[in-house]
What we know:
By secondary structure, the protein is an alpha+beta fold.
Amino acid sequence: MGCAAVSAGILALGFRMAMVRWLCGRLEETAAVARAIGAGDLKRRAPRYDSKELDDLAMAVNRMADGIAAQIRTITEQKTQLETVLNSMREGVLVIDKKCRITAVNRAMRDIFPDAEQAVGRSPLEVILSPELQQACEETVACTAGRQASRSFQIEPMRDKVYDVTMTRLRSVDDASGEDCLGAVAVFHDISPLTRLERVRRDFVANVSHELRTPLTSIKGYAETLLLGMEEEGGNGQGDMPAQGGAASARKNFLEIILKHANHMTKMVNDLLHLARLESGERQFEFRMVNAAEAFSQAYKECLHLAETSGLAVRNLLPAEGVAVHADQTRLVQVFRNLLENAFKYGAPSVLDAGSPGSPGLPGKPGATGEGPRGEVCVYCQERGGDVVFSIKDQGPGIPRADRERVFERFYRVEKHRQKHKAGSSGLGLAIVRHIVEKSRGAIWVESPVEDGHGTIFSFTLPKAPPAHDE
Length: 471
């Protein structure tokens, strides 16, 4: 009886120990699954068990894993959507943390500022050379009472590149006081075109008011003088003949000045109207086969007086047999005329480079009356693929690098303080040339200096005329 009891006790103890080991094994297996899920392995799942309690625990772990996986999928999808939205924006986006360090940038930001490619972890000033931006970032993330949560300002980190920056503070969802700052987001809007338009508008107002006021003042003054002289002559009688001859000469001189300024005003108004019509498309182009050599000759005849006054010789290297291009005859003449006028007005060499007045003339048209040419304007062309490249080269002082991109803007003048003596220019000639060339499916550009720090070459392309049987 005693032996049986002892044997039963031993068997029971062994059974209990086996059960404990089995339970520990199942619990360790479930714990391993939970640890794997916690480590990021969301595909791991606990197995089903015969024991209700263990099975409930395993299913709870599996449901937790399913919930975590679903939340991560949602977060991943939202992150992907946000990245897609940010990368599709034209505006640059910069995200900084509460320590004023960059945490993220979008694709547009990397395109605008190449250094932003490796921007994460750096301060804004290390990427964008703008103290104003750095100061705004520091003030925005400071979360000091009274600081604005959003601000807008403009920066110009590069020449002729202006950005309107909107910066907004980031704060946690449960932050009611607004003092728990997570960082800030800055959005960069490129307003460079608007800034250039505003600059053109200001130049327009300034130039037009100046250009109109000066001739109007002359017209008014000389007209009043003529009127007063006529009144004095009427009150004093005929007077002696020499006095009458002197008065007549003075009146003639005054009238010539009035006519000169009136012509200047008329040219400026006509150029303004012509440019407006080009931009609006009011007048259509009549494209056909045009002999560019004939168009150039016609343009030269129209500005022959200016050529003789400038003292510059013209060397025409266009082929004698002509150059056939697909263009509008009238507009092509205007392109050549405007470029020639520009060369005659600003293309003369400086006093030190021009030589003495009696120096021998250059090949081409004669210079000023009684003097050898002070320099030359050279016109030539070359074929390039399906286009013809025309170039007009002068020997003037050249155009500074900073002004080259703006010479085709309306009313823009290079070194305005040096050009005050150049009369008769509306400031619209090159702008008109650019519009005509671009509407003729061509391109125009300027190269300067050409050699020894002097000279300018204006070049433009036009399509070659198709063979006669293709028209």
